[in-house]
Structure formats: C-alpha cells, structure tokens
Design goal:
The protein is of the alpha+beta class and 144 residues long. It has five helices and five strands. It has helices spanning 7-10, 19-31, 33-40, 92-103, 120-135, and strands spanning 46-53, 61-68, 72-76, 86-91, 113-116.
Amino acid sequence: MTSSDSPESLAPKPVFMSEQHVQIMNRLLADDPLCREEAAKLDRAYVLAYRLAGGPAGQTVWWQMCFDPAGGIRFELREPPQPADLTLQGDWSAMMRTMREVKEGRPAENPLTAVGNEKMMEKVAAAFAAGQKAATIATEIPVV
C-alpha cells in the first residue's frame, strides 16, 4: 500500500445501482445539507422512475429517484407503488452501455424514452443537481 492508498480506495467498488450502491448514495444524500435544502423548496414530492427491460435474468429493473420536501432525496430499487411523475424507459443493456460510455468520457446517446410529465425535471432541477453532486461515487458498471 502506498501513502496515497487508503483502505477505502482499495475496497471493491459497488456495482452501479446495486443495493450496496443505493445504500451508500442514500447515506450521502441524507447527510448533504444542500440536498435537504433543495428538496425542502419543492411544492410536493416527485418521483423520477427508470423502467429497464431485459435486466439480469431477463427481468424488468426499476430505479427511482424520489424528491420529497419533508424527506429529502433518496433512491429506491423497486417499482413505484403509483405511477411516477416521469418514467424513463428502455433496455437495461443499452442503459449500461450508455453509462459506461459516459463514465469513460465518450459521447453517448440517450437510450431512454420519457413517459409522463417531462416538465417535472424543471421543478426538481436544483435538487437533482445537488443530489448528483453529493451522491456520485465510483462504481463498477456491469459489462453487457
């Protein structure tokens, strides 16, 4: 171990959008004052969902990003109990390839289509940006 290596830097990276990754992100989001501040400005709770077909074992994969004035910002790995304000849907493998390209700094096309209120993103933009800044960590993206 060199002086620049910390035990954290040697630990394996969580798999992108795995339970471990979501737990870490949720802890970071809950601890970030700007995330709480931006979420508190919202007029109501909003849900951005991702519905990705053809995930591991062929199942549909759900990701949610929830913005709640009372509860802050959090991620969940389940289908929303009611329709999300905005659902981005597409193929899981295409999404993983896109995420890998973005991570590597290459141009990537959006493989998702939007269903619902696209204007919702304008309302949650500041909270989304704060959440992205607070909870972006190094991950391993599945090879597909």
